[in-house]
Amino acid sequence: MSEVVSYELNENIGVIRVNNPPVNALAQVVREGILNAVTEAQNDGSEAIVLACEGRTFIAGADITEFGKPPRDPWLPEVLSAIENSSKPVVAAIHGTALGGGFEVALACHYRCAVPSAKVGLPEVKLGLLPGAGGTQRVPRVAGVKAALEMITSGNPVAASKARDMGLIDEVLGDEDVCAGAIQYAKSLIQSDAPLKRIRDITIDASSIEPDFFANARKQLARRARGQIAQDRIVSCLEAAVELPMDEGLERERELFKELVSSPESAAMRHIFFAERQAAKIKDVPKDTPLRPINKVAILGGGTMGGGIAMCFANVGIPVVMLEINDEALERGMGIIRKNYTITVQKGKLAEDKMEDRIALISGTTSYDDIGDVDLVIEAVFENLDLKKEVFGKLDAACKQGAILATNTSYQDVDAIAEATSRPEDVVGMHFFSPANVMKLLEVVRGAKTADDVLATVMQIGKKIGKVCALSGVCYGFIGNRMLGGYGREAQMLLMDGCTPAQVDGALEGFGMAMGPLAMGDLAGLDVGYKARQARTDLPDDPKLYRMGTLLVEMGRHGQKTGSGFYKYDPETRKRMSDPEVEALIKEEAAKLNIEQRAISDEEILARCFYPLINEGAKILEEGIAQRASDIDVVYIYGYAFPVAKGGPMHYADSVGLKKVYDKICEFRDRYGEEYWQPAPLLQQLAEQGKSFAQWDKERGAA
Ligand code: 3HC
Ligand code: NAI
Predict the structure, then answer these.
(1) Does residue 291 sit within a domain?
(2) Which of 7, 174, 207, 512 is 20 to 30 A from 547 via CA?
(3) How many CB atoms lie within 10 A of CB 274?
């Protein structure tokens, strides 16, 4: 037998074991090993076959690294056919997660049993794919078309007990070893002379599907999918499951799978799958760095961010103490936390008693005496360096040795904050994004003196609270906010040059951004940027720079909170509407500045807004602020809702071609001036060498 798949007889049960760490992905050797084992079992003394896995999980899917490479035999459908056509019952023994191709292997078996903690799912859509080995044909046959649609288009796994209720699992075992449990189950099948249950033999009653079911599904999914095509193709496969015989349905599924696997969307989403996992690794911090235990956390400041951060820890059962300036502020903070949880309960996403358990984990104080025993402090007080230094001085005096002292600052110098303590090695940035209990990104900011074990611990705790972590060095705005500058600036410059707000936002939303930058400004409050600009001394003295943003604030139009900004908002529904008054004002202002307005294409809008991001990203890379271009992509996908189907700004730049991006930036420099457009030397170098950011990452090696 092969190294990764073993086969042995256990009395009258043939046991196939897959052992391909870390997640038993269906690499070629695994496919071949399973095929050989099933073939061998047809001719030995076994009366039933159990397929089980070693390690932490059942098969977690196809080997994603093989996509985009030439296919190697045997292909997965061939292995599944061998299982399904076995003359002896095959039982899948599921523990951990049976995902994608892994769950499809289980569905080709005649019976499926699972331990209670197991989950099954078809997450292919999250990679811009569809289940390509029968998942779209077998799940609707067992669970019904509606449940299949939900499962496959969401990509979310379901727990063993729910999967049993849906018919996807036959037996939920006790807590015993999964393989032993499955062997017992297989023996009971033999004893009861159970039939060879093949899902392919089930026919879906087409008359049970409402006539407009698929059309409605397509409409709803198109709204959610933001430029992705996989959802639409999944609907086509489910239609085929209803209308066509099994083999033709499988053929249709294969055809559409092939289309998706070679689509730019899927390439982008696979890039992000690996980028996300890479981002958590710090190149010069060894993997086995010992971690500091984190059993209790303090949050300083219970405002917008502090409250959300406290919830992140309470959600995973870690007690939190929230420190505020006075009882009133404390009460307000606790009130917001309760309100946020209540909304989650109302949405049916959290049971009421669970909410109370979580709230009970969060206590409040106004005294530093109460935070002496915590393992981690996250400071989220006002964004003011002197205040932060003062607070860190107090933390230094109050906290036990070894406690990690983190700041959630958006822009302040983490090193200056660290120097306010006698232990700068324990100080680190933990930059959450608003709303902190929802947004997935955590930028981990490494100060000049931050200790390795502090970084390793923060990366690990970040993952534990459900965040995707990326490392940043110290600079103004770190990776994400630093890059954002030119994006917002150009969105407003485009207005002066001839666009309406709706046109700028429309082009970027058409690209896949959840919200265009001007609408985003209205949401965040235009006064925020206005105040920040007033404090800056480095901005060019140029009357067209941020002209509209400034004027609107001075007119009292601060955005959604005042009912108007770049747009006007329906007071009831908050629906945004173009405002002819603003459009006229833009024209007037442009005329005052002698700017000749012109028609501007969507292509130019995208280039003007995104190329500054990419250019700044290149500077961030060459300065070593980000470890990898792919880390920058992770920051933008999870922190700024950049469309995952475009793979992040740096991947997008690669797909456009760095030479083209560089040339365009040079053109903009010549047209709009050097103070705004200065090509990054790294971008120039890669463009001239005909290289991509992905190649740059590769040449520097993985962590
Ligand atoms: N192929 C290749 N490598 C994989 C992989 C896969 N399917 N799944 C995980 N890995 C790798 C990761 O890249 C990571 O590598 P690293 O240690 O070098 O960074 C390692 O395995 C461990 O992964 P995680 O850090 O994600 O481990 P967790 O324990 O946190 O999570 C998991 C485990 C839930 C299984 C998670 O890895 C996961 O969701 N994997 C992807 C599952 C998936 O998408 N399957 C569908 C694939 S497409 C398919 O099957 C097509 C079919 O229909 C034909
Ligand atoms: P906020 O104004 O909503 O909350 C700040 C809270 O800190 C207030 O409740 C205040 O009473 C409290 N506070 C002030 N001084 C204190 C002290 N000495 N001790 C204890 N508590 C004190 O501010 P917000 O938005 O929560 O921001 C906090 C920090 O998080 C800032 O550094 C900000 O830059 C950063 N941040 C903000 C984001 C946002 O979108 N709001 C996003 C990411 C980071």
Answers:
(1) no
(2) 512
(3) 13
